[in-house]
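Appendix B.2, paired examples.
Example (i):
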Amino acid sequence: MRNGFKGLALIGLVAVLVVTSVVSACGGGGGEKETNKILLGWLADQTGTSGTAFKEVSKGIDDYLAEMEASNPIPGVKIEVITYDTRLEYARFQQGYDWLAGEGIDVLLGYQPETPTVTLDDQEKDKIPQYNFSAWPANMDADWLYGYTYGMEWEARAAADYLVNQWWPTQGKGRALKLAFVNNPEYGSTVEYRKGLDWVVAQNPGEITLTSVGGSGGQSAWASEVAAIQNTDAVFMSAVGTSAGTFLRDAIARGYEGQMVASTISVLGIWPMVTSLVEKAKLDGLLIPHYYPLYTDDNEYSDYLNEMIEKYRPSEADALRRGTTWMSGWVTAQILAETVRKAAEAVGGKNVDGNAINDAFKEISIEIGGMPNITLEGRGGHHVLQAYCRMIQYDAAADDWYAINDWFLAPGFTM
């Protein structure tokens, strides 16, 4: 793998939202070279609270592409990103895919793990690989699909296993652990997350009780639901959007004192909205399983990220650092661009297409400061590029996120 900027190895992963972002490259050695346009097509919700998060993600993507163009362009290749807004309607996935395919995309970009359940058959026919933020179990081994992480079921296993085996023994209660699950029943992610929690409960018979309460994605009040989980020791929250913020607000206002554990899709992408509803000091100690570097990591790559966000977003840097959306955009663009670069090195820039990029996904091995390699190597056939996570915790006094343990595999995930 060719090194990126400042000699740092490249990175992996979260979503892309840009109307159009362009990276162009001319080969060295005099004379204008033929340029092959590689089109990445983004199919995801860009409406409401999701749209707010994607706008920040898109800034990271734009900034990475600008830095790459200036520092390490791909010879003979120009990358463009186009988008189709599914507008929170799963029915729009198929028509969105059809439109993107008609535009000639070489790679499909997906945010929701449900995307391949609609598009995968057409992708295989059209020879268009998909890069998705996560993968459902049924699709983890599918060709033409590459998930950055392994989806909600395994995320729930990882988070619950940490709470059961590392957090709960420090609490000195000497009794069964009482857990709650707060969710939006209408979303497929709820079903997957519940599977993961149920798996951990089954692995610890008699040691855990689990109470589940649900509300709509736009739910504005959680009075009865908070009452139902008031006496639990910890809450796992997969609720998203407005409902995530209003649940935290109402639970804290009603005196809930247990440990809060949010999913990766719950609060990080909408942190400004959450903190507009809940005083930051009241969110101290919030836990989230996480798959990316942090600005607070003590290594060269984090120094580099902090340098880049100051370079490209000086007036927004402090606010963007409070979440992980800008960084997710940066690393997502980097892994995609370097996969295209690997394809270009294999077949020549002018010959890169969906087939070549699909092959390149199988061969990438990306090392980032402190993270396990982003690769399919050793994944046992699973098309999951980042199989490890770690728990991060919000420190209200520092107004920042910090890792509290090392990288680990979700229990039961077979490498």
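Example (ii):
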Amino acid sequence: MLRRFTDTFVLGALLGALAGCSDPVPAAVGVAIELNVPESGGCALQGPTPQLGDLKSNRRAYDGDKGLSASCRVSNNGGGFTFQANVRASMPALTFNLTNGTLDANGKGTALLSLFATAIGSPVVSPASQPCTITVVNRDNKLAVQETAIWARYDCPTLNGNPTPICPDVSGQFYLENCGK
């Protein structure tokens, strides 16, 4: 009886040690996106403007939840940051991709946005010649950007479809956390 208890104890300790050797599971990417599309130009909305998460109440949507796929990268480049994001949600139907994102040390920069929302009707993108302006939110006298996270406002002078619609003055905010470096 004592030998069986000892064997079981040793086997349990070995299995527990092996389980402790695995890499920790990374935290899921958290996202909140606010989208403002004026009902002018060729971008008249067909239904409510989609939102993901809620910036006002600090609610995030997380990668893997209810059809959400989200990935992002925020890296310190020594004098500012570079960033990118790929977000695809099924409810609400929304695709929000930021590429070529750069920020200076003051939290100001640019990025290219490609966007699809059922309410718009077809995909739209910011032309390379007119990137969106990015301004990091200032929270408690500190810029809300660090490696792995960013909270910023975006202002896009135009987002173009192929061939239509053309959406002028699209703006909003995005929050990304648990991003890669």
